[in-house]
Backbone:
């Protein structure tokens, strides 16, 4: 009898452990403890036993019964927690519900990415008014008096403020660099600042020309800086934007407010520098002018050009964003078209 | 500008094995941007000289002929051709199968194949000049004229590129990259750069010596505008075509050959960058006077433009009248004519800005004026004169110089720049060998001496007209010649003086990020000018508006004093695609008032505050919800962006707002902006069809960033508080603020009332007329003990009773 009991315990212990569902467990339970269950059957046999053995046997069976009931209950709890409230047919491939969508303009995003990079190098962020005078737009920047850019074909002059001396003529700033002079005049060197802003050119628009676009200027001025520090600055910018090191080259370029001046090219990211239609087969794409601020510009800012020098770059943000995302029409940036803007969330 | 390397070789001995790709690269890196490199001969691949042996009629076409043509080595092929000048013995251009030609001179080049033309098999094609791109060298005098190469000593079968000596490499240089370098606008200048880059000798051009001859009468009335004028009277010339080599060179660099006399002047300009001009001496009465034009004086230009001149124009005049617009273009009546046999050659220097003004005034920019505009040096007249005289002698061996004057009113400024070698080394980040510096600068024409570690540099005249004048310029010359690539990048060193702390800048970014990421608004960009339609709809009476002198469109002359007009335009454009959306923009606006002097007392800039504006757009039956959403965005803004609180007051409505739904936004006591429902009339005026919009506009300059976060900690309650909703009826015009303030009067130790919040308001069929039902949530609790339900209900009853007593609320069950 005892042997039978032990075998029963062992057998059912295993079965209970392996029960895969609540239904199976219930079935096991009734097979054991139900009216015709095996334990019940055993209990029924007790009266047939010798009286002296009965108490001990009864106790053993009851112990086994309790033990099995416990095991069943434990398993039941375990199965309950494992069970799903969701039907098996639930389709996990239906799309998620997106959070309500707002976003910053792709150019603002790019700007903030660059701001963060420059801030980490200890640069200040400078902002300045959009309307400036001819004095700061051109004269302080070493533009000769009859430079073509001053003419109305390139600059948006303000009506009733478009005649007279250079300090009286007002325009929507054609570039940011004049503002840099304002900064230098009102701060003490050394300088290390970035200057993002919208600039305006009176020109015919097409997919690559806009009347309003964003520039991002960065300027360091210090004693005895070499122009090659600029290379470091440019590499930092590009690796931030593209997420990897991008080959750059600096070649001779002319801008009135820098000396020496550079055109800065990056390796074409479409062909990897092999030459393609985007880079006109040269493998390089012109992305920004740069250079050492012209001694006359430093003088205009009240600095001694013998003592101070620096490095400046002026990045066309529109162009960079276009290249980064493959946008093929610059006019989309000022279109306020949400179908376009929502792509950059 | 196009540059022919063959031409360059006249002045600098380029090694035969020179890698042209690297030449283009070196020039690009150090001097000018080379945009393209073309192998001229390659465009004549498959074109050979053929000799027509026999011209036979075509059996099936009147206008076509069958030419039995020798294509080399005595091989005769039949070629069908419609040329008008075909004759036996004539040498022609034959395009062999596989060659590319431009059919009738039009469209893209097409490949030639052996094919039947009207039933007769034709080998290749006999070409007209327009079909091979040779029109300028072999102009077609009549339609269907075939290029006649009979004058060339070339056997049949010779490639056309060999026969015409078209082996040349052409560089296309971006003109924008050399606006500051007047010396580069001719082959000699580019040759000098190449000589310096590769350390090769540059050919000298010896000055012309007129000898002892009669002087030619020249007067300069305005020496500022014309510092130098050389007039040379030449006899024994005639109008004839220039030699083929000269025509060919002009054609390669984009100039159309005209006749020998004109070609010489153009050739000299392309060679040394100095414009020259030739007058018919028989038409010049007396001598030459360089003077200002009289107001209204008339001049007919070579291009048939008839001008009425201004007193600012400089003209070349004979004793009777103006004969040329100085530095721009010759007059039609006195320049080279068909019968010219005597010329007056002009080699002169004109001041840059005057030439530019005149050329722009008549919209008449020329190769000459665009060179003078860059400030050509006075000394450039010498090589130009010398070269011109050599060419006249070569083309007209009988030519005699009968009179000559070189009148120079001004000397060119001599500039010497001293550069400390230490300074140079510091700026370059490395010390270059003195000999290297000397050699490179000398090759560029600078006279260099070094004494006591000071580099003394005399600037050559051709670099002294504005381009090189100071130490930084010399540093640039040294650096670019050494190669910008060859300087190692030096890291930027930091000196830590504390964190960059810019509260306004940070606040602006936080506000934009708050609007975008927390309030789900999309940032947009618009132009600073506004369309009249939106301005008139939203701000019919705006004062202090600034206008553009030359607006992008006649109805877009006003520049923005508010961001709302362009925002409303954006709403109208987007409602086609979206039923609900929220947008915002941040930019400066402009007012013709409150002028300030940020840097310079003499400079006055208008008031330019930075604004932030936005719109929540949706269906018009949702306008109340839209209003509350916008108010929520604004009232929570301060908390998330760390600035001083925004308050709302109902004051006077802005011109664009619905009179019943607008609020004035204040920070402290200062006006910060407005919000409100865009009124229907304004909305329709802006072309918005269906959508309702709630707008706000804030003046960012009035917002005050906090120095730090201001959140403070309050202890968590030890026992839970209860939220208890009650609904009551109020008069329709009772404001929520009144209800709340009244209810909160009962917030005291006995009442356990902690807070009163708005849940909902309702007016419907069950609500009596003139009333509204307001549901409010009372937060009831005490700090140390849990309240009984009697205590909670008691508190609610006290509040309700008080509301009834004070503002006539009725309990609603």
Residues:
């Amino acid at each position: 009898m005892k042997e039978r009991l032990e075998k029963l315990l062992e057998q059912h212990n295993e079965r209970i452990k392996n029960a895969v569902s609540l239904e199976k467990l219930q079935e096991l339970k009734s097979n054991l403890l139900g009216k015709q269950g095996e334990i019940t059957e055993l209990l029924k046999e007790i009266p047939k036993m010798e009286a002296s053995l009965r108490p001990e046997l009864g106790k053993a069976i009851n112990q086994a019964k309790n033990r099995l009931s416990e095991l069943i209950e434990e398993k039941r709890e375990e199965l309950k927690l494992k069970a799903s409230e969701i039907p098996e047919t639930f389709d996990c491939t239906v799309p998620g519900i997106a959070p309500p969508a707002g976003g910053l303009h792709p150019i603002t995003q790019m700007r903030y990415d660059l701001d963060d990079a420059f801030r980490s190098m200890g640069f200040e962020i400078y902002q300045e008014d959009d309307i400036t005078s001819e004095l700061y737009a051109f004269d302080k920047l070493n533009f000769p008096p009859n430079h073509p850019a001053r003419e109305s074909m390139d600059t948006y002059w303000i009506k009733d403020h478009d005649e007279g001396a250079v300090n009286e003529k007002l325009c929507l700033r054609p570039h940011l660099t004049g503002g840099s002079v304002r900064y230098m005049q009102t701060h003490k060197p050394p300088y290390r600042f970035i200057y993002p802003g919208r600039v305006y050119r009176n020109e015919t628009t097409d997919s690559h020309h806009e009347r309003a676009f964003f520039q991002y200027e960065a300027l360091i001025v210090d004693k005895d800086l070499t122009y090659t520090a600029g290379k470091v600055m440019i590499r930092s910018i590009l690796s931030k934007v593209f997420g990897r090191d991008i080959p750059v080259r600096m070649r001779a370029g002319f801008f009135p407010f820098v000396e020496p001046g550079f055109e800065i090219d990056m390796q074409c990211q479409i062909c990897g520098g092999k030459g393609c239609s985007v880079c006109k087969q040269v493998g390089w794409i012109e992305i920004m002018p740069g250079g050492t601020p012209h001694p006359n510009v430093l003088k205009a800012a009240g600095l001694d050009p013998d003592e101070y020098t620096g490095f400046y770059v002026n990045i066309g943000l529109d162009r960079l964003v276009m290249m980064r995302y493959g946008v093929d029409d610059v006019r989309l940036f000022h279109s306020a078209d949400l179908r376009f803007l929502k792509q950059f969330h | 500008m196009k540059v022919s390397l063959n031409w360059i070789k006249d002045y600098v001995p380029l090694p035969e094995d020179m890698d042209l790709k690297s030449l283009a690269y070196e020039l690009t890196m150090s001097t000018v941007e080379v945009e393209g490199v073309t192998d001229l001969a390659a465009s004549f691949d498959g074109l050979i000289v053929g000799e027509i042996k026999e011209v036979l009629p075509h059996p099936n076409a009147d206008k076509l002929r069958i030419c039995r043509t020798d294509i080399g080595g005595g091989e005769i092929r039949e070629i069908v051709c419609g040329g008008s000048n075909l004759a036996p013995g004539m040498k022609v251009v034959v395009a062999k199968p596989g060659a590319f030609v431009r059919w009738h001179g039009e469209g893209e080049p097409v490949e030639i194949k052996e094919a039947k033309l009207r039933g007769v098999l034709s080998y290749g094609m006999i070409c007209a000049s327009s079909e091979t791109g040779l029109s300028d060298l072999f102009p077609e005098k009549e339609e269907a004229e075939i290029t006649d190469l009979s004058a060339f000593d070339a056997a049949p079968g010779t490639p056309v590129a060999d026969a015409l000596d078209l082996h040349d490499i052409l560089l296309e240089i971006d003109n924008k990259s050399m606006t500051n370098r007047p010396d580069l606008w001719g082959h000699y200048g580019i040759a000098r750069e190449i000589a310096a880059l590769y350390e090769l000798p540059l050919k000298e051009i010896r000055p012309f010596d007129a000898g002892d001859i009669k002087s030619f009468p020249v007067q300069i009335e305005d020496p500022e505008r014309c510092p130098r004028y050389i007039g040379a009277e030449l006899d024994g010339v005639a109008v004839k075509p220039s030699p083929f080599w000269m025509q060919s060179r002009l054609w390669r660099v984009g100039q159309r050959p005209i006749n020998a006399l004109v070609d010489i002047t153009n050739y000299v300009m392309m060679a040394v960058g100095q414009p020259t001009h030739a007058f018919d001496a028989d038409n010049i009465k007396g001598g030459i006077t360089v003077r200002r034009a009289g107001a209204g004086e008339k001049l007919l230009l070579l291009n048939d433009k008839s001008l009425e001149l201004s007193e600012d124009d400089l003209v070349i005049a004979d004793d009777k009248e103006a004969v040329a617009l100085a530095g721009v273009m010759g007059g039609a009546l006195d320049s080279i004519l068909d019968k010219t046999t005597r010329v007056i050659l002009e080699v002169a220097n004109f001041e840059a800005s005057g030439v530019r003004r005149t050329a722009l005034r008549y919209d008449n920019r020329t190769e000459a004026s665009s060179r003078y505009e860059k400030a050509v040096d006075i000394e450039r007249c010498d090589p130009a004169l010398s070269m011109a005289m050599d060419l006249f002698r070569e083309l007209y061996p009988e030519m005699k110089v009968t009179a000559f004057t070189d009148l120079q009113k001004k000397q060119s400024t001599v500039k010497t720049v001293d550069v400390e070698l230490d300074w140079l080394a510091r700026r370059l980040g490395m010390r270059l060998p003195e000999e290297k510096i000397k050699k490179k600068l000398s090759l560029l024409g600078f006279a260099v001496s070094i004494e006591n570690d000071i580099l003394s540099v005399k600037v050559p005249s051709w670099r002294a007209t504005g381009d090189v004048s100071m130490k930084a310029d010399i540093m640039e010359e040294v650096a670019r010649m050494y190669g910008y690539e060859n300087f190692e990048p030096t890291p930027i060193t930091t000196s830590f003086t504390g964190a960059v702390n810019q509260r306004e800048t940070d606040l602006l970014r936080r506000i934009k990020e708050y609007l975008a990421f927390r309030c789900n608004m999309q940032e947009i960009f618009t132009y600073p000018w506004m369309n009249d339609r939106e301005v008139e709809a939203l701000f019919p009476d705006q004062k202090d508006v600034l206008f553009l002198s030359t607006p992008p469109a006649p109805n877009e002359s006003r520049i923005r004093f508010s961001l709302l007009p362009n925002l409303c335009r954006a709403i109208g454009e987007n409602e086609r695609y979206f039923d609900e959306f929220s947008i915002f923009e941040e930019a400066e606006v402009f007012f013709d008032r409150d002028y300030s002097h940020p840097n310079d007392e003499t400079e006055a800039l208008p008031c330019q505050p930075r604004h932030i504006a936005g719109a929540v757009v949706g269906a018009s039956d949702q306008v109340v919800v839209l209003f509350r959403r916008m108010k929520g965005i604004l009232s929570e803004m301060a908390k998330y962006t760390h600035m001083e609180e925004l308050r709302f007051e109902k004051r006077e409505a802005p011109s664009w707002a619905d009179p019943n739904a607008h609020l004035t936004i204040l920070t402290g006591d200062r006006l910060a902006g407005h919000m409100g429902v865009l009124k229907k009339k304004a909305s329709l005026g802006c072309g918005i069809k269906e959508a309702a919009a709630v707008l706000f506009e804030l003046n960012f300059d009035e917002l005050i960033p906090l120095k730090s976060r201001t959140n403070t900690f309050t202890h968590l309650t030890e026992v839970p508080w209860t939220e208890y909703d009650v609904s009551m009826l109020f008069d329709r015009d009772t404001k929520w603020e009144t209800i709340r303030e009244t209810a909160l009067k009962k917030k005291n130790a006995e009442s356990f009332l902690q807070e009163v919040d708005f849940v909902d308001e309702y007016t419907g069929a069950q609500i009596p007329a003139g009333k509204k039902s307001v549901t409010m949530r009372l937060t009831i609790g005490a700090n140390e003990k849990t309240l009984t339900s009697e205590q909670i209900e008691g508190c609610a009853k006290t509040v309700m009773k008080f509301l009834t007593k004070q503002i006539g609320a009725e309990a609603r069950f």
